[in-house]
């Protein structure tokens, strides 16, 4: 058998075709070296080739072994539970459409269609494209974040217009942590470049969090801080960052203090923390998220294990109007009966002017037709999916849903910890942390402990634009795991060093 046919038989066994040229080149170089050794011992070129190929062994066996080492990885269990949770979220969004308004479909069900496409495309091509275009992205993405900041300044702060900037910047914030990890990883071997990238990321992050996110900055900032700190510790623990571990850990603590200072030392930050730790002290009306947390706590505490909550019409009216809480505290916050009134002006004429910013709810139902959905907080169909599941069907179904979400995260991080590549594991761990902390904050909010604004429950809670970000994050984890054995980061780094 000649050399070319031998190499063909080996590479034919490699299932991932883009990897065949590099494996063939490496084997060919090894064979040429062995042939030269035999020729130096007095063998002819033909005899040296035959002897080398005979010593190499069976070509099919070699190729099969190489394919086992360099094959694309699959995660069937994770894929199954991801599909189930995705379909659960999609079905819930469609159910909301059937029971409520078409606008909620635009905000929910329709977002799942491009989100699912983005998840599949990113899983199939995301990590190889990131590796291929990482230098271009290193320049383009910071410019994109600057463009978001300029957009906010021009259209919101100067012109006084509001183009859903909170959703745009929240979407950008969810993706900032993996972007920062990729940039810092690329500069980790050059101290000057690493420091420059660190200051750039810190500046962009500060601008994005503390100047743009006027509505959702607390939640997005907390998720980003937790994600970046945990990812940095992961990279240090795995030896991805060069040098001793003491200095990097010290740097992480310093960065944590620097980044989290404004989050907890500003007036808004202290207010968010106080509302999270002691919601009763922050309640002023039934419109407050802190009131919603207390309401949810009270309702789920009365829900049995095996079936939904049972309330009399009078009890539901008390919950719906807020009388159960405000009757002994501030009766002016109890909901107003709006039946028979066609305008706010008629209501003001009937009940008088209320204090600015503290108007109670207008109640459009009575004890004869009140339902559980009438007394739940606004946007309960998105922000309180777990709590509503408990209230409608009992604690056991609610715990089953929590268990399914927990199983998803367990399988997700099991796959992440198996990734061997340094960049792939760092990026996947960062994306996983971003998904994890959203889920943790969402669960706490559903148990009555909400921090700042609501986060999203990945795959299930719609979140409009953020579902796209979550699908992109999840798709990148799949892609990093899938291509971990076929994308050789060491060869790429060696080529860059030679260049």
Automatic annotation (TrEMBL):
Name of the protein: Permease prefix domain 1-containing protein
Coiled coil segments of this chain: none
InterPro entries xref list: Perm_prefix_1
UniProt superkingdom: Bacteria
Source organism (scientific name): Enterocloster hominis
UniProt keyword annotations, A-Z: Membrane, Transmembrane, Transmembrane helix
Membrane-spanning residues: 77-98, 104-124, 136-156, 168-187, 194-213, 219-237, 249-267, 384-411, 423-444, 464-481
